[in-house]
UniProtKB/TrEMBL annotation:
One of its GO terms (biological process) is protein transport by the Tat complex. One of its GO terms (cellular component) is TAT protein transport complex. It comes from Giesbergeria anulus. Residues 69-79 have a biased composition (Basic and acidic residues). It is found in: Cell membrane. Belongs to the TatA/E family. It holds the Pfam family TatA_B_E. Its main location: membrane. Gene3D superfamilies: 1.20.5.3310. InterPro entries: TatA/B/E, TatA/E. This is Sec-independent protein translocase protein TatA. One of its GO terms (molecular function) is protein transmembrane transporter activity. The lineage of its organism: Bacteria, Pseudomonadati, Pseudomonadota, Betaproteobacteria, Burkholderiales.
Length: 79
């Protein structure tokens, strides 16, 4: 009972495929692969030689680029 043989692993694999289905397992595999690729790209971008990181895509880099339709929450609290 020390280690599992190849037959044990094949039975476990068969049960997993029967429970989740091949389409679900394919989606999980592609999501996992995309996450690993994104992590590797992030690590590669983080180790740039010039040390200047680009600003995050969801944030404004400077106050001059602020849209006129944005609401200043702190100004409402002060008034």
């Amino acid at each position: 009972m020390g280690s599992f043989s190849i037959w044990h692993w094949l039975i476990v694999l068969l049960i997993v495929v029967m429970v989740f289905g091949t389409k679900k397992l394919k989606n999980i595999g592609s999501d996992l692969g995309g996450a690993v690729k994104g992590f590797k790209d992030g690590m590669k971008d983080g180790s740039t030689a010039d040390g200047a990181a680009p600003p995050p895509s969801g944030q404004v880099a400077s106050s001059a680029a602020v849209d006129k339709s944005t609401i200043d929450v702190e100004a409402k609290r002060k008034a």
